[in-house]
């Protein structure tokens, strides 16, 4: 059985590494330099970095210089998220050298463009399915964007390679992942799923690992690492097979 991939998160707002609660603008706790955080996760043995431009996601500007600096400094694979919604932002994101990008709002608001870029870029494109209940949320998780399962069926048919599934109610809360949601999504798609939001303990990571046979490929970990609930070294050991 393949081991669960871990993706430590660096969410960037106004040039700083931050964590939000429920992804809400204004709920930031700041954790300093995004580059220092990313280098720390890399040194600790991460194989992936989940890097988010929150200003681009919220439409309050962007952190392109910081994102490029961090991506350029990484020897590990980078998954880039936040505000990638058209050709220009996609080209800029891919030009950083990241391994793949997450599209969120665009998958809800620009389905034809998303089908086109999935066809062009294959597994360099993942779609973030960010939900409250089973309702998708776009524009930095501030607006409803349709039904999870209808959108998933459409994206599957278009050849989407992978989904990053976030229960917004759990995100940044240290309340544990929504394992039921992950199971439900895995039951209706054969594409790999990356779990995001709520991880609070090594037991949470072990519980997500048990879903690898059902299709969960990875888990994003943010707040728990910054809050020092465990170290990344401990997390990597917990999911090693
Ligand atoms: O990813 C986005 O585009 C995004 C947009 C708006 C608000 C938050 C967004 N992402 C947050 C993350 O990806 C978190 O880093 C991740 O879910 C980790 O959550 P947690 O482990 O609960 O801190």
UniProtKB/TrEMBL annotation:
<dbReference type="GO" id="GO:0003949">
    <property type="term" value="F:1-(5-phosphoribosyl)-5-[(5-phosphoribosylamino)methylideneamino]imidazole-4-carboxamide isomerase activity"/>
</dbReference>
<dbReference type="InterPro" id="IPR044524">
    <property type="entry name" value="Isoase_HisA-like"/>
</dbReference>
<dbReference type="InterPro" id="IPR006062">
    <property type="entry name" value="His_biosynth"/>
</dbReference>
<comment type="pathway">
    <text>Amino-acid biosynthesis; L-histidine biosynthesis; L-histidine from 5-phospho-alpha-D-ribose 1-diphosphate: step 4/9.</text>
</comment>
<comment type="function">
    <text>Involved in both the histidine and tryptophan biosynthetic pathways.</text>
</comment>
<keyword id="KW-0028">Amino-acid biosynthesis</keyword>
<keyword id="KW-0057">Aromatic amino acid biosynthesis</keyword>
<dbReference type="GO" id="GO:0000162">
    <property type="term" value="P:L-tryptophan biosynthetic process"/>
</dbReference>
<keyword id="KW-0368">Histidine biosynthesis</keyword>
<dbReference type="GO" id="GO:0004640">
    <property type="term" value="F:phosphoribosylanthranilate isomerase activity"/>
</dbReference>
<comment type="similarity">
    <text>Belongs to the HisA/HisF family.</text>
</comment>
<feature type="active site" description="Proton donor">
    <location>
        <position position="130"/>
    </location>
</feature>
<protein>
    <recommendedName>
        <fullName>Phosphoribosyl isomerase A</fullName>
        <ecNumber>5.3.1.16</ecNumber>
        <ecNumber>5.3.1.24</ecNumber>
    </recommendedName>
</protein>
<keyword id="KW-0413">Isomerase</keyword>
<dbReference type="InterPro" id="IPR023016">
    <property type="entry name" value="HisA/PriA"/>
</dbReference>
<dbReference type="GO" id="GO:0000105">
    <property type="term" value="P:L-histidine biosynthetic process"/>
</dbReference>
<dbReference type="InterPro" id="IPR011060">
    <property type="entry name" value="RibuloseP-bd_barrel"/>
</dbReference>
<dbReference type="Pfam" id="PF00977">
    <property type="entry name" value="His_biosynth"/>
</dbReference>
<feature type="active site" description="Proton acceptor">
    <location>
        <position position="11"/>
    </location>
</feature>
<comment type="pathway">
    <text>Amino-acid biosynthesis; L-tryptophan biosynthesis; L-tryptophan from chorismate: step 3/5.</text>
</comment>
<dbReference type="InterPro" id="IPR010188">
    <property type="entry name" value="HisA/PriA_Actinobacteria"/>
</dbReference>
<keyword id="KW-0822">Tryptophan biosynthesis</keyword>
<dbReference type="InterPro" id="IPR013785">
    <property type="entry name" value="Aldolase_TIM"/>
</dbReference>
<keyword id="KW-0963">Cytoplasm</keyword>
<dbReference type="GO" id="GO:0005737">
    <property type="term" value="C:cytoplasm"/>
</dbReference>
């Amino acid at each position: 059985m393949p081991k669960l991939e871990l993706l430590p998160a660096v969410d960037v707002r106004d040039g700083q590494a931050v964590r939000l609660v429920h992804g809400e603008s204004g709920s930031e706790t700041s954790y300093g330099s995004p580059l220092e955080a990313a280098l720390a996760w890399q040194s600790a043995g991460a194989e992936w970095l989940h890097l988010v431009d929150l200003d681009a996601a919220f439409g309050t500007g962007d952190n392109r210089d910081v994102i490029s600096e961090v991506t350029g400094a990484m020897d590990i694979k980078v998954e880039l998220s936040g505000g990638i919604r058209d050709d220009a932002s996609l080209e800029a994101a891919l030009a950083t050298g990241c391994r793949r990008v997450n599209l969120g709002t665009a998958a809800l608001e620009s389905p034809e463009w998303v089908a086109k870029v999935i066809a062009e870029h294959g597994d360099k494109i993942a779609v973030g399915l960010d939900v409250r209940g089973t309702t998708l949320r776009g524009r930095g998780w501030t607006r409803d964007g349709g039904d999870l399962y209808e959108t998933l069926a459409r994206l599957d048919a278009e050849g989407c390679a992978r989904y990053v599934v976030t229960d917004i109610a759990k995100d940044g809360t240290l309340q544990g992942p929504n394992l039921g949601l992950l199971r439900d999504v895995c039951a209706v798609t054969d594409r790999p799923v990356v779990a995001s939001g709520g991880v609070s303990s090594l037991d949470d990571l072990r519980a997500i690992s048990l879903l690898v046979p059902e299709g969960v490929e990875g888990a994003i970990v943010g707040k728990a690492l910054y809050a020092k609930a465990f170290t990344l070294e401990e997390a990597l050991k917990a999911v090693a097979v």
